[in-house]
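step 4 of 6: structure.
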Amino acid sequence: MESKKTSCKDLFSAFFRIGLFTFGGGYAMLPMLERECVEKQGWTDREELLDYFAIGQCTPGVIAVNTATFVGTKERGVIGAAAATAGVVCPSLIIILIIAMLLENFAHIPAVQHAFGGIRVAVAALIANAVIKLIGKNVKSPLAIVLCIAAFAAITFLSLSPVLVVLVAAIAGISAKAVAK
Amino acid sequence: MMTLLNLFIEFFKTGLFAVGGGLATIPFLTAMTEKYDWFTRRQLTDMIAVAESTPGPIGVNTATFAGFRAAGIHGAVTATFGLVLPSFLIILAIGRALQKYKSNPLVQNAFSGLRPASTGLIAAAGWSVLKTALSGTDIMGTISLPAVILFAVIMFLSNTKKLKSLHPAAFIGLAAVVGIVVGM
């Protein structure tokens, strides 16, 4: 492949399209990332993309942003990372702002209120499904079961800060492995 | 100005401590409803619905919406910037040592604790959303029967083989129609 220097504009517009055409983030982004970064631009290959996702799950934050930062850095350093990240975030900013403003004007209409009454139920069901899937994937060992229940209880019954829960869980994970040795 | 600073700090914390993608940010937003009067739990649930049925990463969508509710357009930009910044800095810092970072035993052990805890956090946020969604609109907050039935139907439909791969927006759309027809 002829190597040409990638411009920040290329990075911004590729990730703008990725942000615009993916619903939901996470793995739902993979096909769009492949199309833009592998097939069209040749910035990376499929293997490396899957690696990014694996690493994205071992770093905090939004996986889409992690991936954009990776690809941007690789192509153009810090400025490239900023361009790619701005690109992936911009469609959300624009679309959500429009919807938020519209909703503010229409929120008092009874039909809209009833619609959201139903929508809230759907959201609860979608999160319940996500939780069931996550439990199957992440909660297997006895320690994992304890940590999962403890995190739930800390928030639901004790109203503790999620930051505290995350810190304690990381320490518990590290010390459990140390003790096992 | 104070609100913008608080928004930035809260969403920076969210970006730094939310492990495992978009939904993992919700427990942090639920905590914000207790600390600030930026938005209510009910509004948060509406924001999640919009975030799930519009393009873009759920975490970014929710942050933008929450920031807008708290402080208008400036709030939206500030919250989104705050959320994104930790990921950006961390990836820049890890840089070329990505593979080394991933296979580092300390990182792996920490995440063996973080993943189940994050699952518990999301479950707690889900529980709070469920309570909001199923409670009636009257002051007593008693359970709304139509909501319970709709919840059961959506759980059933979204777990049947043929409909499993349907986009979340399809179920959200269906629920909106039912909500209007039944007058939820």
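step 5 of 6: annotate
 - Residues 8-137 of chain A form one domain.
 - Chain A is about 80% helix and 0% strand.
step 6 of 6: archive
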